[in-house]
Specification:
single chain; about 475 residues; alpha+beta; OB fold (Dihydrolipoamide Acetyltransferase, E2P); five-stranded mixed barrel; elongated; binds aspartic acid
């Protein structure tokens, strides 16, 4: 017999079906026992009587066991109808029962929202935590979102390109993760903080419209809207465009996405307000204002743009990458962002007054994306390197960009909204980890597998690495 899903039982009244799934709940009423069977489509009520309370192996099913049953789908007596679930009008009278695999008692309940359960334990048993309906829903929405984005962009002539994970430093203001090379001992790859340079090189390559659902790696302290280690961006780049084109495309993409994937949410204001940096700071004291009209309404989405950022900020010690924290200026976005054309003369006289062609996407008080029009002139790029205090060696690390720009580079620009961060803000989840399948914990330990861990001595020998014991 072919498997029937829980949700399909409502169309099979009077028929014999075979169901497979987990025991969601068990209710004993003397001679009769009710089990809710859960599969990917939802739950359906099973009715077991007499000898059918035990399996052929002589065991009784308990919650979270994986079972297989055959039985007849029946209408429920009117008084027993449960209007809260889609299969609430039917039940399955079980004929045979098989326990496929037994489940131990779970380390925590999964029928609650789970917010109050210790994070390390949720992370260690993440595969159980994901059984929780809220988590399953979030992962499904994540998938729906990326699927919508792909279809939307491919229909508009964008090309999806994968870029390397083992690469060279791509500074976005965080620390790099580095990976030792076995073939070239003593040398290291860096994991990309974003595909920034590759997407610009793809514009030199003539693709004109690129996107990628890209994994980005940043060694920085976790925050509520930032997971430790890695996260996913919708990275996109276009040639022969103005900032206006990028803002319009992004606005259309997310407006239609909200309608399709989150139909019960409503966007507070369209077109989205565009607020110059100086104004937003003056009015709200932040560059990511929460513009919701009613902050207690969980379904309101207030998108806005912050534009006209200063190209540079005064450099601080945290800007260890640029000029080793000793130069006067650090890029506010990244060093490939183009200065406002009117402000180019100020690069020589008053760099802190130069505006950048940067745009930040803001949703309900979260920065959910950033991008810019890029520099495509070699001389201006070199000037920026000087202003941020790059040494000769640091400049040499970006020679490939300057070289590429000598072979015919189109004007280009783009944006990279964070997929997880956007989903967190749309759903009003309290942390970005609630929308990721296997996020690292805030102490940087990975979910379930508990990396980082020791490497075997042979591995280290092969890489030419000696560990210096750390003083405790
Ligand atoms: N690479 C940038 C970032 O990760 C986004 C962009 O400028 O397109 O923030």
């Amino acid at each position: 017999m072919k498997r029937t899903l829980a949700i399909e039982t409502v169309e099979k009244i009077g028929q014999e079906v075979l169901l497979q799934g987990w025991v969601d709940t068990r209710r004993d009423h003397g001679k009769i026992t009710f089990l809710d069977l859960r599969d990917r489509s939802g739950i359906v009520q099973l009715v077991l009587t007499g000898s059918r309370l035990v399996s052929k192996q002589g065991e009784t099913p308990t919650t979270e066991d994986v079972i297989e049953v055959t039985g007849i789908v029946k209408d429920r007596p009117a008084a027993m109808v449960n209007p809260k679930i889609p299969t609430g009008t039917v039940e399955v009278e079980v004929k045979t029962l098989k326990i496929i695999s037994k489940a131990k008692e779970l380390p925590f309940p999964i029928d609650t929202d789970g917010y109050d359960i210790n994070e390390e334990i949720r992370s260690k048993y993440r595969y159980l935590d994901i059984r929780r309906p809220r988590m399953t829903r979030n992962l499904r929405l994540h998938s729906k979102m990326t699927n919508f984005i792909r279809n939307f962009l491919i229909a508009r002539d964008f090309v999806e390109v994968e870029t390397p994970i083992l690469t060279k430093t791509t500074p976005e203001g965080a620390r790099d993760f580095i990976v030792p090379s076995r073939l070239q001992k003593g040398k290291f790859y860096a994991l990309p903080q974003s595909p920034q340079q590759y997407k610009q090189l793809l514009m030199v390559a003539g693709l004109e419209r690129y996107f990628q659902i890209a994994r980005c790696f940043r060694d920085e302290d976790p925050r509520r809207d930032r997971a430790y280690g890695e996260f996913t961006q919708l990275d996109l780049e276009m040639s022969f465009v103005t900032q206006e084109d990028i803002l319009q495309l992004t606005e259309e993409l997310f407006t239609t996405l909200v309608k399709e994937v989150f139909p019960h949410k409503h966007i507070a204001q369209s077109p989205w307000p565009r607020i110059p940096h100086a104004e937003v700071i003056k009015a709200y004291g932040t560059d990511k204002p929460d513009l919701r009209k009613n902050k207690t309404d969980p379904d309101e989405l207030a998108f806005s743009w912050t534009i006209d950022f200063p190209l540079f900020t005064a450099q601080s010690k945290e800007d260890f990458y640029y000029g080793s924290g000793k130069a006067k200026f650090a890029p506010s976005h990244h060093m490939f962002t183009a200065p406002h054309p009117e402000d180019i003369p100020l690069l020589a006289t008053d760099p802190l007054k130069v505006r950048g062609l940067q745009h930040d996407l803001v949703l309900n008080g979260f920065e959910v994306g950033g991008g810019s029009i890029r520099i495509h002139q070699q001389t201006i790029q070199e000037k920026i390197f000087d202003l941020i205090g790059f040494t000769k060696e640091q400049k040499a690390q970006f020679d490939h960009m300057l070289t590429a720009f000598t072979y015919g580079v189109p004007p280009h620009g783009g944006i990279a909204p964070g997929v997880d961060r956007l989903l967190m803000a749309v759903l009003g989840e309290p942390s970005i980890r609630e929308v990721m399948a296997f996020p690292a914990s805030s102490s940087g330990t990975t979910s379930v597998m508990e990396a980082p861990s020791d490497a075997a001595p042979e591995q280290l020998r092969e890489l030419g690495i000696t560990i210096v014991p750390q003083k405790k």
